[in-house]
Write a structure and sequence with these properties.
alpha+beta
């Protein structure tokens, strides 16, 4: 499994209504990060503060331009340390990574998905509980 290359596929795919935040996330934002909490309405995240409508792309996803000829543009999360639980837990499974065309996954991971899942769980151990 490769390291994340900040391609942004997961953020783009799930930011249009595909993400949820835990009650603890929302309460924490209300108390400590009102700039984030402005984008919460009735427990739903990434809602336009002016209209109350769902925003099609995460407001915290920023595209950083390529720094040279042989580099690619990278996506960054402006609230990485305070990102929602769904974001902290992603990716949860090899199957999810395959389905989402995650660029971290390699052919060898698909050949031995059980080992790849163990590797993924270890990699994500600081962010989420293991899948199994």
């Amino acid at each position: 499994m490769k390291a994340c290359n900040s391609c942004g596929k997961c953020c783009i795919k799930y930011s249009d209504g595909g993400l949820a935040a835990s009650d603890a996330d929302i309460e924490g934002w209300a108390l400590f990060n009102p700039d984030i909490h402005r984008f919460v309405k009735n427990g739903e995240i990434w809602m336009d503060p002016a209209t109350g409508e769902s925003i099609k792309r995460c407001p915290w996803l920023t595209l950083q331009p390529a720094k040279g000829k042989n580099t690619q543009a990278l996506y960054t999360c402006d609230i990485y340390r305070d990102r929602p639980e769904d974001c902290r837990h992603y990716p949860t499974s090899i199957e999810e990574m395959r389905r989402d065309e995650c660029e971290m996954i390699e052919v060898r991971d698909l050949r031995d998905p059980k080992k790849a899942q163990r590797d993924l769980d270890k990699l994500m151990s600081d962010s989420r509980p293991p899948l199994g």
